[in-house]
Amino acid sequence: MSRRPLLLSAWCAVAFVAAYVGFVHVPELRAADLRVLEGFMGLDTLPGAAVGDDVVRLFDPAPFAVMVLGILAAAFLLGRTKAGLLAVGAMLAANVTTQVLKPLLAIQRDYPPDHFMGPEAYPSGHTTAVMSFALALVIIAPPRVRALAATLGGVLTVVTTFSIMMLGWHYPSDIVGGLLVATFWACLAVIPLRAELRAPNLKASAWAGVLLLGAAALVVLPRPAAAVDYALANTTWVLGAVAIAAAALVLSGSVPAPTAARRRPPTGSHRARG
């Protein structure tokens, strides 16, 4: 069995701790975290920004429970019940972990003017939910459509996490924490399966990035001057947005997915007799 999933889960755990220590307790990183958040909140007048709340609400507890059942049902119909059970287990474990960690890691940080944010924020629960759902899609998807599942999951994750920050619900560091918790559990989930030695979904992550760049271009093209001015005035936000999108896309394609089950040779075949 490949050690890749175990190594990835260990990396996620280390990165999770490092992100918390750095962005919560180092003043310079903490200030940058706030500036990136303010940059996202300044986009609330963009066309379609109001839809962000509806997107994020898809990952409230009740809709998320429906998604968990949907993953399990889809896996059963695809003949991938074991993968489905493990994927659902990862979804539930990730979200329980996040809810346990929130009060344990609670600390009051600075928040944008006239916008209070509570101390129980790291990691983001909605981010954990969307990322765990995206990774569950990849785990249960048959090989022929796995790249499509990873692409759609990556796009959904970025759109949802950007919406969370535009609404001012979470700091960017909270988003990173949620991504890492979900990936940690997804990596552990595939260990009992016959995992591939290479994660085939990084190309899908690249395709998701292309789709997102195309969507961003459609928003920017009608007002290029205003977009350039905003970017120049919020350079920290630009760097943060690119980093978070890249992290979400890379992580969404990093978990080794199970291979298709091997067919047993016919009873009378030479291989079976030998």
Automatic annotation (TrEMBL):
Asked whether the UniProt record includes Electron transport among its keywords, one would answer no
Tree of life domain: Bacteria
Query: Taxonomic lineage of this organism?
Result: Bacteria, Bacillati, Actinomycetota, Thermoleophilia, Solirubrobacterales
Transmembrane intervals: 55-78, 83-101, 121-140, 147-169, 175-193, 205-225, 237-255
Q: Which UniProt keywords apply?
A: Membrane, Transmembrane, Transmembrane helix
State the species of origin.
Solirubrobacter pauli
- The Phosphatidic acid phosphatase type 2/haloperoxidase domain sits at 83-190
Against Pfam families, the record matches this protein to: PAP2 (PF01569)
Q: What is this protein called?
A: PAP2 superfamily protein
Q: What SMART domains would the database entry show?
A: acidPPc
**Key word Transmembrane present:** yes
